[in-house]
Amino acid sequence: MAEVAEAAGTKVADEKAGDDEYFLRAENLKVTFRAPGGRKLHAVDTIDLGVRSRETVGLVGESGSGKSTVALTLMRAHEPESGRIWVDGQDITRLNYSELLPIRRKVQMVFQDPYSSLDPRMSIRRVIAEPLKAHKYGTRAQINRRVDELLEQVGLPPDSVTRVPSQFSGGQRQRIAVARALALEPLALIADEPVSSLDVSIQAQIINLLEDLQDQFGLTYLFISHDLRVVRHISNRVAVMYLGKIVEQADQDDLHANPLHPYSQALLSSVPVPNPAMVKDRKRVILKGDVPSPINPPSGCRFRTRCPIAQPSCADSLPLLREVKENHWVACHLV
């Protein structure tokens, strides 16, 4: 039964992935890592994900769900076991290093921790100029002008170029990371938890900066986060991951107004609400148990061991990601 469901799920994914409107696209993507004892850790298990040009797709889920692995695999920092990766209509899945260089100009990444993603020994000029030099952008004078321009775009003063990362706050360091990602004038950014290590007030500043840059340069974003409040603010569409699988995908407003998968309902019920009157009428979904090991995931539905509405039949086959209403996809036998 599981094999039949997997094959059917692949067919659905193929139909969705066949649309050339996506700038970034993962088709039947599967990523595994070697675990002790020769076992496989199933980090990402046969997912399909697309990001249209100039839109923002939020990818949400608990820690360990596979979000960052998706991001790094789209950048080809991890190699997929199977499936394909498309950037601007080009299949990049098997390209070698030299063939990937022009692709890396189109897609750049902003990492989670600005304290560790910037070399503490480098001046800010060197940090931002590094990708420009790697891609032979131009003369030293041209590179210096580009660095000055980038600092202005992210709201940092010109004298920042002579300082080192330790002389900046967390929010300022993340602005530097964004400037570095923009250096090659990419068409898309993959932002992996870019505000999770920042204070709430600073988070808002960085989110506003990303939105302004998207409007200014027509950027495409894949925005990865476990914070649904942030994702709701910035995203056009949202995909929810659990244990290596996408379990729900919908427009942002639709997902927040009417989550259909039990896991999505649990995630949204945990988001703090500032209005006490709304809290009284709100049903909190408490998940029991821990996330299963991706080395030995449950049979059938991955979520069934923690699902409040699970039935014995949920163990028999993997639920398909199917369109239950327009632009709203859910992988659940009971929806």
CATH topology of the domain at 1-88 and 190-195 and 218-335: Rossmann fold
Structural class label: alpha/beta
Strand order of the largest sheet: 6-7-8-3-9-10-12-11
Strand portion: 15-25%
What is the H/E string? HEEEHEEHEHHHEHEHEEHHHEE
Q: What would CATH call the class of the domain at 1-88 and 190-195 and 218-335?
A: Alpha Beta
- Globular, elongated, flat, extended or rod-shaped: what is the shape? globular
Q: Provide the CATH superfamily of the domain at 1-88 and 190-195 and 218-335.
A: P-loop containing nucleotide triphosphate hydrolases
Radius of gyration (CA) equals 21 Å
Distance between the termini: 19 Å
Per CATH, the architecture of the domain at 1-88 and 190-195 and 218-335 is 3-Layer(aba) Sandwich
Biggest beta sheet summary: 8 strands, mixed
Summed up, the helix count is 11
**Strands, count:** 12
Mean pLDDT: 88
**How much helicity do the residues have?**
25-40%
Q: Uncertain runs with pLDDT below 50, 5 residues or more?
A: 1-19
